[in-house]
Automatic annotation (TrEMBL):
CDD domains on file: PBP2_PhnD_like (cd01071)
Gene Ontology cellular component list: ATP-binding cassette (ABC) transporter complex
Domain of life: Bacteria
GO biological process, one term: transmembrane transport
Descriptive protein name: Phosphonate ABC transporter substrate-binding protein
Pfam families according to UniProt: Phosphonate-bd (PF12974)
Protein family (similarity comment): Belongs to the phosphate/phosphite/phosphonate binding protein family.
Keywords assigned by UniProt, alphabetized: Signal
Length: 304
């Protein structure tokens, strides 16, 4: 490690931890990685976090990168995962199913100090599609049913702007691609005429903005941003929380919260990978920040 874990935790001991009396000591720690890019890249981006966590907790740490968002959601609900960085909609899905499963502790902060991002509609620059008004009869791609920016927010905001999300009513078809990276590639390859993904909306378009799925795709060389255009942008969305399994020992929760909160000052390169781009760090957050998203999620469930 570039910096000792003692510095990372500002003096916290790195030896195997004396756990709180009200919870059994842990023998392992399992981190779920939400979908959005291919599993290999997700694992590589978070390998540094795994190493820091092992040193801090004194137990083996595993990274899990399921094929879809639901894999992480079910892992948290079933107690087979201890930590994850969720989107707001995925947190809402966990909370609606079991309010006692996890607790939000941190949220990613943008370089301007904000805690929000956007659902960004994209199309090929040579497609002739410059806005949703150009999408009549065309194929629109969405990421995952449990994605906030890749489905839930567009499901609310796009119809409110006069464009039905029912396949065939305005768009020729509405399809799921499987995730953010898949949506970006589907647009770039012409498999869909447009799609939605996530970005903080700050910085340069040519770099994929400062953080988000577009930045990760541009960094990986999967797309040239000059070949794409932005055709739609949602209202600001609250960044999803880093959550911890609620019944973990208190010292484990405190240690992992401190580790992630201090990561940007300890190892900026590691923080860049974990946060999907440029970040000012992670800041404390509580459940209250997600009550609106939870209400939207509950309304969607009731409607179906």
């Amino acid at each position: 490690m570039k910096t000792t874990i003692a510095l990372l935790l500002a003096g916290a001991a790195a030896a195997p931890m004396a756990m709180a009396q009200d919870a059994a000591p842990i023998t392992e720690f399992r981190i779920g990685l939400l979908g959005g890019e291919n599993a290999q890249d997700r694992l590589a981006s978070n390998e540094c976090l795994k190493g820091y966590a092992e040193e801090a907790l004194g137990v083996p740490v595993s990274l899990f990168a399921p094929a879809d968002y639901n894999g992480v959601i079910q892992g948290l609900l079933g107690g087979t995962l201890d930590m994850a960085w969720l989107g707001a909609s995925s947190y809402a899905a966990v909370y609606v199913d079991n309010p006692d499963a996890v607790e939000p502790v941190l949220v990613k902060t943008n370089l301007d100090g904000s805690f929000t991002y956007h659902s960004i509609g994209i199309a090929r620059a040579d497609s002739g599609v410059a806005s949703l008004a150009d999408m009549e009869g065309k194929r629109f791609g969405f990421g995952d049913p449990n994605s906030t920016s890749g489905y839930l927010i567009p499901l609310v905001e796009i119809p409110a702007q006069g464009y039905s999300m029912v396949p065939g009513e305005y768009f020729g078809d509405v399809v799921f691609t499987g995730g953010h990276e898949q949506t970006i590639l589907a647009v770039a390859n012409g498999d869909v005429d447009a799609g939605v993904t996530w970005a903080d909306g700050l910085g340069d378009w040519a770099e994929g903005y400062n953080s988000g799925a577009l930045r990760k795709a541009a960094d990986a060389g999967l797309v040239d941003m000059n070949d794409l255009v932005e055709i739609w942008r949602s209202e600001p969305i609250p960044e999803g929380p880093v959550v911890l399994r609620k019944d973990l020992p208190a010292e484990v929760k405190a240690t992992m919260t401190d580790l992630v909160r201090n990561l940007v000052t300890t190892d900026q390169e590691c923080a860049y990978g974990v946060a999907a781009g440029e970040t000012a760090g992670f800041s404390p957050v509580t459940h209250d920040a997600y009550e609106t998203i939870i209400a939207i999620r509950e309304a969607e469930i009731a409607a179906n």
